[in-house]
Amino acid sequence: MDSALSAPQTVLIVDDTPANIEILSSILGAEYEVLFATSGREALDLVARQIPDLILLDIMMPAMDGYEVCKQLKANPQTRNVPVIFITALSEEADEARGLEVGAIDYISKPISAPIVKARVRNHLQLKRYRDILEDLSARDGLTGIANRRRLDEFLAQEWLRGRRTQSPLSICLTDIDFFKRFNGCYGHAAGDDCLRRVALALASVSRRPADLVARYGGEEFVCVLPDTDAAGAALLADKFSDAVIALGIPHADSTVAGHVTISGGVATAIPTEESSAAQLLEAADRMLYQAKKTGRNRVLAPLWETVHC
Question: Could you list the residue range(s) of the whole structural domain that residue 240 is in?
Fold first, then answer.
């Protein structure tokens, strides 16, 4: 299970009155990591850098009220699943209905009651953790334990949009185990499954940045998505992937390129634009992989010239 799921959960308190933040922090600080913001804009900026597990959101704030903050959170794919509880002195049924319509999951009325705050926050965070566990399991490949194709597609789309906003490079390394069908024929499918697991873990061990994602693409193919990584950096990491697999020393008597398991790889890098797509970047990496296999396997091909718009 992802270690992030066992970490202390984070609660963001958003209120333009510092005294209210202090009260809520004193109630929750012993059990959770507490963040705070004193305006709607500050809250959205903070969430863009660190996504909390739950948000306690005041409604009546100047410039941007809680309703608008909640609407923007729910419109963002990266934050739409973060539970929002409104903390408010408003008590009319219409106010509560409006809050639920914009995406809040609960209301806590002022004046604040410590037992009620603790109980509701605890209940909603428990539900959030259960959802996170299920989401984590659904995003993992059942054989290797790394990210599956579904998670890869989501992550790549997310990072493509982020790269488009920030105009930062995005790289992909697509790898394939050389002569894997021959490996299965020589050693059997149980050994093949074990080989896939060991290669997956070796690749994941090389890519240590939390921002990167290693996923099983299908069969004996694996993909590493490298945000904020230029062509030279991606090529360097791709070589480390190859070295890590060779270091496993898994015998492969039926390989024509080595007496052990090796991989071929292709790397592509782009600065995302509105006119291009993540699928095109993946196709470019696939073309490089094809060339690596065509020119002898047991190698990684990566264009080392300047990163260009895809």
Answer: 149-309
